[in-house]
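Many introductory courses stop at the sequence. We go one step further.
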Amino acid sequence: MHSTLEHVTLTGADDNTPIEGLLDLHAKFPFVEFGILVSSRPGRRMPSLEWIKRAIVLFAHQDTPEPPALSLHICGLRLKDLCAGKPILQDFRPILMCFRRWQLNFHGIRQLPGTVSRIIDALREMQVDPEIIFQLDGFNDHLVDDALALRMKFSGLFDRSHGAGRLPDRWPHGPGALFKCGWAGGLGPDNLAEQIPLIQQAAGPFPWWLDMERKVMGPGDGLDCDLARMALQACKLFIAAPAADGRAEHAPPL
């Protein structure tokens, strides 16, 4: 039995990315999730709060079974405060519930013992309960043990390039049934057909996802909808499709 690619996260949309382009991508590829980067200030690949609010409003009014999925990718000082147990994103409070998953972008910076319990305390104070994505980067894999012990709602993202967008020599093997995982690092339209079968083998017979950023960015260093479309088209061959009985029909391994 082979693994199932459930969804694909495209990260890096910013104020220069047309929201209509994202809506078109979702209409053609409903398995896409848009990763929204946030730090202490907006900039390249980090949209303004006004852009995010406008996108959420437009997403909510689309005539589709589900609005586009969003994940919040937290960086910089905001992430440092969250790991210290401080409530963050006060300016985002009205829209936080629109992000079902929060990814913590440590990028190879080692976190201290007790980080997971402090994050849980901060989430409780903020009255939110997202799925937390930990980067499995070889530096902070110990956070997973704490998350399992504390029964936190979480998943893991393998990215040994620490956000630099480099293909690994070998894809790390998944954790089996312990928790859901994604894979990232150097993936894009030029190599997905070759790399996805290798990740399928690493994932084993469990659902997983892909995350892409560097190779779907345009000259302006933000998400490029044309490159994104090419990437999603390549991924579509591996996405599970619903069968007549309501169960998933798995795309065949290559």
